[in-house]
Design a protein that fits this description.
By secondary structure, the protein is α/β, with parallel strands linked by helices. The chain contains eleven helices and ten strands. Strands 1, 2, 3, 4, 7, 8, 9 and 10 form an eight-stranded mixed sheet that branches. It has a two-stranded parallel ribbon with strand order 5-6. α6 packs across α11.
């Protein structure tokens, strides 16, 4: 009996210690893994909200860029981290809804712990200023007459820009040749240098360059115009209502993080995103602030998984090699 009571007492002590740890969380800096290089759209969003999240929690939120393999390296690092509430990551569409269709990713999708969506970023079909075509219809006409003449860049194989370009190919009946880069930032640099002629990327990846005239914005891949670029027509207006694409960036965590910690971090992120100055800066960067419950975020990504799976199958993309 004494042994049983001792074991029970130990169990209660452990439970009490775990509860206390959750109540006191966070007691040290928190890592936020960004699965792309510095300077890209995901990194820009992370660095904009990080100071406000830090202020809400009373601890530093340290950005850790783990670029490569179209976002799968950083996603894997997040999923495999200790579930102690001191590592979170940015969920990106390519790693969650694209690549799993074409290759074996190093993590299980069922292990993704969705926390909250942060932003939805409309995709803009951009073109080099060096080409003569100044509208999407003109670009499509040239591409139809000269299959393979122009290249389109992406942030990596089966990332949203890659899939957006493939969707444009399928819907417009053209053949733009895909050139993958290790992130949106180097792809935009390549576009400005005419190394690629088209980049169907996030508005936030190049909105400053668009407004400065260094990149052409031919269309927004959506049914409604984007308030950050009100003069740019939509693909729907230009006769391509099926070309709809945006990027959904949110917070994910390792499986097993205590729900109380997940909720506390989620509330801090929501509060940060809803700070008036942060919201304004996000919109100025080309991002639409949107927060969700974990269940809403998971449902959205499940729907995106099905949508892009069809695009990948129809495009016969095969196995990607990021």
């Amino acid at each position: 009996m004494k042994r049983i009571l001792t074991a029970a007492a130990i169990g209660l002590a452990v439970m009490g210690s775990a509860g206390a740890a959750q109540d006191n969380w966070p007691v040290r800096p928190i890592k936020l893994i960004v699965p792309y290089p510095p300077g890209g759209p995901v990194d820009n969003v992370a660095r904009l909200i990080a100071p406000e999240v830090s202020a809400k929690l009373g601890q530093s939120l340290v950005i850790d860029n783990r670029a490569g393999a179209s976002g799968t390296i950083g996603t894997d690092a997040t999923v495999r981290a200790e579930p102690d509430g001191y590592t979170f990551g940015f969920g990106v569409p390519g790693a969650l809804t694209g690549l799993p269709h074409v290759m074996k990713v190093p993590y299980e999708l069922k292990d993704i712990n969705y926390v909250t969506l942060v932003v939805r970023i409309p995709q803009v079909i951009m073109a080099s200023t060096s080409i003569p075509e100044k509208t999407l219809p003109a670009l499509i006409a040239t591409a139809k007459a000269n299959p393979g003449k122009y290249n389109f860049g992406s942030a990596g194989n089966v990332t949203t820009p890659h899939l957006g370009g493939e969707l444009l190919n399928q819907q417009a009946g053209i053949k733009l040749t895909h050139i993958p880069y290790k992130g949106a930032a180097p792809a935009v640099t390549a576009l400005m240098g005419n190394e690629i002629q088209v980049f169907p990327g996030d508005a936030s990846a190049a909105i400053g360059f668009i407004k400065a005239g260094r990149v052409q914005a031919l269309a927004v891949s959506s049914a409604k115009r984007f308030e950050g670029l009100p003069d740019v027509p939509t693909t729907a207006e230009l006769g391509l209502p099926g070309v709809v694409s945006d990027s959904n960036y949110g917070i994910i965590a390792p499986k097993g993080v205590p729900p109380a910690i997940i909720e506390k971090f989620r509330q801090a992120v929501i509060a940060a995103v809803n700070e008036p100055e942060v919201r304004k800066k996000l919109i100025d960067q080309g991002a639409l602030p949107v927060t969700t419950t974990p269940e809403e975020y998971r449902k959205l990504m499940d729907q995106e998984f099905v949508k892009w799976g069809k695009v990948i199958k129809d495009g016969k993309l095969g196995e990607a090699q990021p």
